[in-house]
Amino acid sequence: MTIKNDDYIFDIEGLNVRYETEDGTVYAVNGLDLKLGYKKTLGLVGETGAGKTTTALAMLRLVPSPPGVVDCKKLEICGQDIRALSAQKLEEVRGKDISMIFQDPMTALNPVFRVVDQIAESLEIHEHLSRSDAQEKAKELLEMVGISRSRANEFAHQFSGGMKQRVVIAIALACNPKLIIADEPTTALDVTIQAQVLDLMKDLKEKHDTSMIMITHDLGIVAEVCDEVAVMYTGRVVEQGTLEDIFERTMHPYTEGLFNSLPNIADRQAMLKPIRGLMPDPTEQPKGCPFASRCDYASPECESEHPVLRYVSDTHKVACSAYDRQPDFLLERRKTR
Amino acid sequence: MHRYIFKRLLMLIPVLLGVVFIIFFIMDLAPGDPVYMVAGDQATEEELDALREQLGLSGNIFTRYFRYVNNMLHGDFGTSFVTKRDVFKTYMERLPNTIRLASLAMIIAIVVSIPLGIIAAVHQNSLKDTASMVLSLLGLSMPNFWLGLLLILVFSLRLGWLPSGGYTGFRSIILPALTVASGLAALLTRTTRSSMLDVIRQDYLRTARSKGVTERKVINKHALCNALIPIITVFGIQFSNVLGGSALAETVFSWPGVGRLVVDAINQRDIPTVTGALVMTTMLVSIVNLVVDIVYAYVDPRIKAQYTK
Hints:
In chain A, 31% of the residues lie in helices and 22% in strands. Chain A is of the alpha/beta class. Chain B folds into two domains: 10-73, no CATH class; 91-308, MetI-like fold (Orthogonal Bundle), CATH 1.10.3720.
């Protein structure tokens, strides 16, 4: 495989995913562009249903079909055109170059196989280890994620939620992948375990120079582990930039809304300000800005013109047409600073 | 696990006692006095009483029940009214034939139905799926005796390839086994399909795929192992059914099995044979059920955990 692009671990252009169900077509991802430099961690943030998980699945060509339909102008990961891979090549890439940590540890593990075998399986496939060597290495991986090797021969139902999540992480890390896609890896965990898992992932990332996508709706986690952030809304990236760009120089009204929804320990009297309204029906594709109906800054033009994701600085991109119309437009959040 | 098996074996005792009683009760309800059948029309009242005593038909139902159970515990299942032969011996002569037929039919059913069910589930709503479902509906709804006659017509009479009945070596088992297998395979295919459909969208298959497991192995290993429990359940029920004798197929092919033994005995009001054969069948069915439950534990560790509790 020739390396086509040295600068990015992955480069996605124009990704569309829709689910064609009997009740209508759900547009999950709509013209998404995303890329990430080597050894970086990207936080993919957004509400439930924003298309984060679908984007991740599309990167591994794991979107179930039917009903899923994927099309994409460009999908390069680790220098390989994922779209063009044969089924066999794809199996070689999965788990070795790219691996995924799944959201729900309760259902992500196979209930009838021993935990150690589920970890050893990818080692047998990709590193061609013998069964016993793979099991030995799997036990080391278990210890690395903080599970005693004496429990290796147990089954998933004998593990607690946190332990299951750590097994899922061990599976994803088994072959030292170049890119890890972590889909809300800590949602199912209580805060102490959450911190442990995050530390663990940070350590491993540094040790193995892994790049990572961290899918979450927890901005605290983003602040802790991510270098870059992409904010997703209705299957599109609405704002993307470095951690500082997003946290300090917020530009999209939706991103501001996410920050306003966070509880503030310093000002407990202040009411939480959730984003009003609901996400638009994903079976319809709005003509204008999909966020317009919920946006405090919306003007009549927003209902009709579709905003384009545009660079506002070298690292910072935003999809909001207010900046085109009035160059001095500033969010409330930025004014008070 | 051993404790569990022991407990289950102990539970066999009340089950068998209950079954014997029910069989006794039903046979008692059946009209007609078997003594007349044995003695003929010319017998005097004294002769009938003597015969009744001799055949163990005197006394009320409880007396007879306890006498029977007592004999049974000593390995004595009585003598046939009709052939005057030992019931246990007769049954044991017939059983191997039934086991042969049952096993071959089950093997054919499994070999056909599991791949067919998997293919149907993987290609849900496709032509392959529809075709295999139509086929299995056909198998389910086609009566055994009719299919048996059809097979005899084609393969024995028209083509002359296979014998039409009796037991004369391996060639004669093929047609009855196919006949019995058709119904079994049909239900097993449907069970496999629906059980696989339940499993096929599970998250852990996605996990397996994300590890780089080949699609073939995802389906045949990761999915199938999880779909096995309902398949084994249906398999167990079917196997105990055919062990009890496939009366229809055995009659059509004049196969010397247990099913025909019971049917003939019922027609001749041969009470000891009917009772003995049913008790033995109950025992076999219970053992098959126990084996199925033990197999569950090896297929699904969660069930094993329940047993050892």
